[in-house]
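Kindly go through the entry underneath: sequence plus fold tokens. Please state briefly how this chain folds according to its tokens.
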Amino acid sequence: MTEMAGDQIARRVAASGASIYDLFNRDSDEYYDNQTLEERLESALVGQQWDAPIRTRSKLGKAAVTVALGYPVPRSFRKTQPRFPSQNLDLFLQQSNNLQIWNEEVDPERRYALVRLDTTNTVTAVRVVTGEAVALWDKTGTLTSKFQAARLDGRTGSKLVSALDTELFREVLLPGATAEVDITGLSPASPPRRGKVLPISEVHSRLLPLEGVTFDDPGLTNERGRGVVLQKLVTETLGVGPYGDKGQFPDILNQALEVKLQLSPTIDLGLVSPDSDHLAEDVGGGLRHRDVRYAVFFGARSGSVVTLDAVVTTTGADFFTEFRRFEGLVSNRKLQIPLPSGLFETKC
């Protein structure tokens, strides 16, 4: 979607007479998709300065977002969750890389607008992410993944679980019938495009050569660092790039591919089960989590080196034909989640 699309939606919102508290259906012409929402807010907010005490700054930020999206500014902002119910959107003004969420759990279907402010309280960048992505950033133990899984007993080695992508995935994205789909130059952080997506069988074939590959371990406790190394390897192996990460779900967005690295049996899946019918907001096109593809890499650490031993590739819909599910715990207190480094520098 282009910035012009955002202008058109803003005009439709204004013409509707709706407030930020009036709910729009996701299929409504007044509802912003994730990419258009980010483009609209970044275009409108970058350069604005809200140099004021914290509460006043927060009000100025909410007012600016309200205007950017085409709504009238209310006389006072209600204490709703999320702050902008009509767009299922929350707002966080970030001068640090520590995202603080008070008195509620992360909602996997909610959108979170993260607005970067410099030391003069001037807006320098905006990112819109889903709650699913936010939950996956938490590596501190503050928030435990609600859904976890382990491979079924007796299952070992690499495997292509799903011979075909889901029917809806094939209908919406038209994955290439051959291995000749040209995906070079596509940003991994941009949404998938119809006809520019590899079929799941080709994804698996291209990832198989990563069996036996080793890389330096960035640190025993640096789970995210290991994940970034693997995502870069996957990006290069698939032939897309250059690598980019906005902290989106799924990791390799332009191929609708979530990448997991397992050095232990338990797989943390976040707040949405892979076979869920919930919409995968970043993917778009009405696709659900069950339509997303998963590449689960199993590996081992020896000293300061990680070796990849196997890769299992599956759709979310078929995930639990190869893995067994169990549920973890979710905390309900103040959440402090570190933002990924480079989040505000990465562009689609």
